[in-house]
Amino acid sequence: MSLQGRKKRVKWSGEREIVYNVYKLKKSESEVGITIPLSRVQKKVAEATRVSRRTLCRVLKEGENVETGVTMAFSTPRKLRPKFCTKSVVDNFDEAVLRRIVHNFYLTEKQRPTLKAIHSKMCESTGYGGGVSSLRLVLRKMGFR
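Above: the chain sequence. Below: its structure as tokens.
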């Protein structure tokens, strides 16, 4: 696992663990007095692993949590994505109308309903403002396939 990546790249959990282990090694060496003074440990570790000092501080904070048992392992920070929601809101009345439209396609018109046909009927009858893909999600939620 290479730590010589480009700048501003997310450090995965394995890389974070390696950085923390290098820090522990350098710190134990400096306490014994082998190579470098204790005040310069972070700078040397940052140069050796090619991470910024701020990233090193974050990894050290997380490493302390792993050592004490607060967390089980190093984590990989992810981009926070908002939950997907439909563009239109369909209440119970609109769901009943939609269910009736789908069943009428089978019973009275004797044909298989398509999303475009259901969408056009829904827009005529209730003034539905959503799109076809939102309607597909609503139909799936209601149990139609």
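The chain has two domains: 13-68, 92-142.
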